């Protein structure tokens, strides 16, 4: 009976640890609008302009902040193609719903790109 | 506690009036030891005819047997309580494992993302429910494990103590030693419990 007892303990311990680790990875990078959309060790990184335009944020590890160069209103680097606001941080299927961005060289933040012809959105 | 020696005098005239038994013609009884103060009374001292039976040491039971019984009952209750707590902890642990591997919140979350075009819906009740289950599962499982181990240890320790207490409480075989002396008889028995 002691052997089954120890087997049960090991099974439950592994199940508990495995369950906790998997979910954090599963939710990272997913869109969110409230904190409950993310894991308890994550935060919903949603910038002010995203709230203004009713756009979702991204589940990120706590105290990480927005995704550099890939979220509206987040800091950017106009020189680096990976962080010059051309590729949103949201999952690919939501790119169509996200406004086109440019990295404003004056304030070094991702801003909504002017529409073709120069009209503001 | 030993019972006080119970003396039963059967048809005994007073010792004062009893006549000493006649001395055998060829008295081969050994000479009285030198420390006998009254040799005449020593001749009337009872001589046990029967062999003392039983294994009682005659020293009596140390301590109050009622206190020992209380300790035994308490140890029994603690053993049962520990077992019940271990069962409760095991149930909790298994419930936690079922939440994780039975409900499978991660798989259902992936299905939810597929149904939503590849990403999870935001501020969704099903998403929040699956996250809550995934968060509660390990907590329930580990809490159950802790309770299971604590209960099992308690039951094991209490059971050991119960066994030792029961071994201490042993009923000795009644020792009976009837004795004939003079014109009377005496029966002495002792029980240890």
Automatic annotation (TrEMBL), chain A:
It comes from the Bacteria. This is Lipoprotein. The lineage of its organism: Bacteria, Pseudomonadati, Myxococcota, Polyangia, Nannocystales.
Automatic annotation (TrEMBL), chain B:
Residues 19-40 are annotated as: Disordered. Residues 1-18 form the signal peptide. Keywords: Membrane, Signal, Transmembrane, Transmembrane helix. It comes from Nannocystis pusilla. This is Uncharacterized protein. The chain crosses the membrane at residues 139-160.
